């Protein structure tokens, strides 16, 4: 009897998380959809002209911005993260892993505004002086986000790699493969779905990050044509303008949220499916 | 005996219920909301006012000029803060200028350009002119910095300078005066516009149409980009709001504003 009660209670708690997610989604869609319907979906996501106070609602530059920044972050963070994972899994001495892994996970605990601030003070002037342009750029945002997604990439892909049965490694080594060949051709292949999932979750984090990106990306309303061009992401667009938005402008920001919601839901679905494939 | 206990309980209950009630009724509250440009100054004035009237609580919120005006219309706040003119559709409200501010064009201190015409400024911000060389400066790309859509400072700047032109799409967008100043102070090619009260030594101000922004030229509106900071009240404003506004317009309130870099209206 008591057991049942606890079970029911936990079920309610678990469902409340689902419920709040549904409510949030419902609210965003109710607020945002009328505007999308009003200006037309094609106009909304395929027009480059964004001037909401004058009735132009085109978020293509922001979609392009979010995608380029996220992709660049994946190149930096993914590459660095996977290299770090290989090192931690195979080449680093045991004692150093015990220190390094928690330290990397600590990166996730640094508030994003701190990353942004360091970006503005250190990275942006460096880019401006080394490569030219205003410094506030796709590149700056990509590097900062790349560092921010490192803990996600490393923690999850390291777990996946460690979950590969030891016999795979032993078998490969016994057949005369080198350590590197074993790692790259056998262990990585076996852990592939987990590693892909780590990259997709990292991508979700990169798409959703706001504060640091606002600070270093420049927020120009432009489809970026070079890594040095300033760019605005979907999340920046909402955060920048929500303070002043009213009427259709506000609905347009909710509509931006709808697009963001769809993108992130897609990413998470892909992540879940690849994770399930592993089992 | 039981009656006495009953009476004690009643007494205790009433004390418990009335105490907080007394406090809230003796403490009067005033809510301000609106322009983030005006907000820091309003907060300062609110603090001074509360020191003199200990029973009053003044709550100052941001949200932007438009939100401030709307909040007064909807009677959500008592006084709206606004850093632009009221639009035609925002009728039935009273606008009280509390100080004058200048929107000042700032560049890096090493920039040799000292003065621009309004047409030149428009050309820069609309992206028609992209190099300082064309304006008598060094051969350096211009980094244009503007404010986000909806900002009162941006709206005033658009009204006074842009004449219907659009901002260049590659202009950087920052969401505060401080962020604009920070970029200009660090980028030799940058130009941005900020509130006169926030100019410091790290940036250089430009004369517009030959008029240098100074307290004198801004107060007299001789400087072309001068704008009023407004308190917005609905017709039936309460006595507390009126008392606070009187304080802001008093020599003491005005002196406090002047000390913070704004220009007095009285």
Structural category of chain B is alpha/beta
Q: Tell me the fraction of residues in β-strands of chain A, as a range.
A: under 5%
Order of helices and strands of chain A: HHEEHHHHHHHHHH
Measured by residues with Cβ under 8 Å of the partner chain's Cβ, the largest interface is: A-B, 31 and 29 residues
Mean pLDDT across all amino acids of chain A: 91
Write out key terms for the chains shown:
heterodimer, A: mainly alpha, two-stranded antiparallel sheet, 12 helices, B: alpha/beta, 10-stranded mixed sheet, two-stranded parallel ribbon
Plain-language structure description:
The complex is a heterodimer of chains A (279) and B (266). Chain A has helices spanning 2-39, 41-46, 60-91, 94-106, 112-131, 138-162, 166-174, 179-190, 192-208, 211-217, 234-241, 248-278; strands at 50-51, 56-57. Chain A is mostly helical and 279 residues long. Chain A has a two-stranded antiparallel sheet with strand order 1-2. In chain A, helix 4 (94-106) crosses helix 6 and helix 5 (112-131) runs parallel beside helix 10. Chain B has 266 residues and is an alpha/beta fold. Chain B has nine helices and twelve strands. The longest helix of chain B is centred in the N-terminal third of the chain and has 25 residues, at 2-26. Mean pLDDT of chain B is 86; it is low at 20-25. Chains A and B meet through strand 1 and helix 5 of A and helix 3, strand 7 and helix 6 of B.
């Amino acid at each position: 009897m008591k057991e049942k009660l606890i079970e029911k209670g936990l079920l309610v708690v678990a469902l409340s998380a689902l419920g709040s997610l549904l409510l949030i989604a419902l609210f965003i869609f109710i607020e945002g959809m009328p505007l999308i319907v009003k200006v037309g979906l094609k106009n909304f996501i395929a027009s480059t002209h964004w001037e909401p106070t004058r009735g132009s609602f085109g978020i293509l530059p922001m979609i392009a911005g979010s995608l380029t920044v996220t992709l660049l972050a994946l190149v930096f963070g993914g590459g660095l993260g996977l290299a770090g994972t290989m090192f931690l899994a195979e080449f680093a001495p045991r004692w150093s892993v015990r220190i390094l892994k928690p330290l990397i996970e600590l990166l996730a605990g640094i508030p994003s505004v701190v990353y942004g601030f360091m970006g503005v003070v250190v990275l942006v002037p460096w880019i401006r002086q080394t490569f030219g342009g205003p410094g506030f750029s796709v590149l700056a945002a990509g590097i900062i986000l790349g560092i921010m997604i490192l803990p996600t990439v490393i923690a999850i892909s390291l777990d996946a790699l460690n979950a590969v049965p030891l016999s795979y490694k032993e078998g490969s080594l016994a057949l005369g493969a080198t350590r590197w060949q074993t790692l790259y051709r056998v262990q990585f292949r076996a852990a592939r779905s987990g590693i892909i999932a780590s990259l997709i979750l990292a991508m979700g984090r990169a798409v959703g990050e706001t504060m640091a990106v606002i600070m270093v990306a420049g927020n120009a309303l432009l489809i970026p044509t070079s890594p040095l061009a300033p760019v605005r992401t979907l999340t920046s667009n909402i955060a920048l303008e929500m303070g002043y938005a009213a009427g259709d402008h506000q609905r347009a920001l909710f509509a931006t949220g709808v697009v963001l919601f769809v993108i992130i839901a897609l990413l998470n679905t892909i992540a879940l499916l690849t994770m399930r494939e592993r089992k | 005996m039981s009656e006495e206990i009953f009476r004690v309980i009643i007494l205790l209950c009433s004390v418990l219920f009335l105490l907080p009630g007394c406090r809230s009724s003796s403490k009067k509250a005033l809510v301000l909301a609106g322009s983030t440009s005006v907000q820091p100054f309003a907060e300062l004035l609110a603090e001074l006012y509360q020191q003199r009237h200990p029973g009053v609580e003044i709550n100052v919120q941001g949200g932007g000029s438009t939100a401030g005006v709307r909040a007064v219309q909807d009677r959500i706040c008592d006084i709206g803060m606004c850093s632009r003119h009221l639009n035609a559709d925002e009728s039935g409200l009273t606008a009280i200028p509390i100080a004058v501010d200048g929107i000042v064009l700032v560049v890096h201190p090493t920039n040799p350009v000292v003065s621009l015409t309004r047409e030149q400024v428009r050309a820069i911000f609309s992206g028609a002119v992209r190099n300082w060389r064309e304006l008598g400066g060094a051969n350096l790309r211009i980094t244009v910095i503007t404010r986000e859509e909806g900002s009162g400072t941006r709206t005033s700047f658009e009204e006074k300078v842009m004449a219907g032109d659009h901002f260049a799409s590659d202009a950087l967008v920052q969401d505060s005066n401080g962020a604009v100043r920070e970029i200009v102070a660090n980028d030799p090619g940058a130009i941005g516009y900020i509130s006169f009260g926030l100019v410091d030594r790290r940036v250089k101000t430009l004369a517009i149409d030959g008029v240098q922004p100074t307290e004198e030229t801004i107060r007299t509106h001789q400087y072309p980009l001068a704008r009023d900071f407004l308190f917005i009240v609905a017709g039936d404003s309460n006595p507390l709001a009126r008392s606070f506004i009187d304080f802001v317009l008093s020599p003491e309130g005005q002196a406090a504003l002047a000390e913070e870099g704004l220009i007095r209206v009285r």
